[in-house]
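Morning, I've got a small favour to ask if you have a moment. I've dropped the whole record in just underneath, so have a look.
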Amino acid sequence: MLFPPVRIFVLVAGHLVGSTSARPASTRPEPTAEHRDSQNNLTTRTRGYDIPIRRGNFKSSTFRRRGSLSGESGLGDNSDLLYTVPIEVGSTVVAVNLDTGSSDLWIVSDACNTDACKGSTVTRYPTKNANSSGIDVNMLYGDSSSGTFAKGTIGLDTATIAGIAMTDQAFGMVNDTDNPVVKYDTAGIFGLGFPAGSKVQQSALIRHTQSGPINATDDFLLSTYTQGPLLSRILMTDALESPMFTITLHRNTIDISGKGQLTVGKLPDGVDNSSLTWVPVRLYNPDEGGLRPPTFAPNEIYPFRWEVDIDAVYLDGTRLPASTVPTSDGVDATRTSALIDTGNSIIRGPQDVVGTILRSVSPSYQPQDTNPVAVFPCNTPHTLSFQIGGQLFPIDPRDFVSQYKQNDATTCVADNLVTTDAPQFGALFRWSLGDPFFKSNLIAFHYGNLTHPSVDPPRIGFLSLVPPNVGDLYQQAVNNALSDGGNFEGEDL
């Protein structure tokens, strides 16, 4: 999910209730397996695990564990808008939206009765069960036209995903939010981003600065080991084969197909490392909104988001001109990057390039209209491709379109592509590649070394899953819709 620009020059954090001190991963001595589990609060060991994505909305009964060495749980898909994973927090099992664009785990509590919580029947976390830190947290999402918030207090409890449990996990107990995920049988968000983007860790700074001095970035980085985001803490235990995860998403509209899976700690079985195109994650200097280097690593530059450089953008094989939309805050306008974001259900891009694309596929498109729509014949597939690391990664034509009207499979609309803000301080990307991109690619996220990224740099690997006969598959989906009363498979209009 898009994370808003926050003008914080130094990210720091104190110690939450019940935490212990920690040292950077590259400098701590190698403990025995038993001692490491005890020190890291890791109650179950593993080398890596898969979480298959199942179609249909999440129900508590789909949560199950397969023993102590691996785990399996179901991911729900709500009309390709949300992809949820069940997490057990304390004794409560909830469905949370899988989000590579943010860093925090938050859950609506039984005290949430405002905004999106009104009328929601989603399972809520009982506040009486929490070890509350008494620290307030306010998490913001989206861009200037689609921003939402989730606020509450920081709680501590055992968090379990696929049989892997971390005790004293910090998370947001949300008592007020307008985030729409709550309206779709989803209790919150599971952020998979870097610790630098964690508002939970940042918010802990307020309490700590009131009780004593801190050493700026040093305290923030060191506290990640025990107090950081859930997946970051699991990875820093060295209990997994590799500090990484991979995601593929299936499609549940136009043409139900594909295989969705979240794999943690390794690549999926049968996928070779050499088959992926690996590119470095864009690092953020302090004057761009990133972390100031700590005293124990004064020359390090840290990642802030899962963001990579984009070489070029193509529509139906034709290279599009680069965006000339001005940047702000002195941000470099010559570099084009993209946020790789499962929390974004569509593709977002610069106003001028998006306008060019929509006018190309729909000559009748008028962006100045109150509610402009880019309609075109359904039997005319279009392919939007992104060149990354010298390779083209197309979006499957089935993920570029939606059905415009019920009972009409002749007219489609390109509504999976919209504009977003220009690059600015704390948000350097021009593009946000959301779920349509994930349904067309297997994407691997390698955290590397969280305290010393130069030792093991963060990177993202891409593998296209678009089949060679995608044109035939697209046409077959159109033909099936025409013979089925004019409605595409899985559409929820």
Notes: DSSP finds seven helices and 28 strands in the chain. Confidence is low (pLDDT under 50) at residues 1-45, 54-78, 209-214.
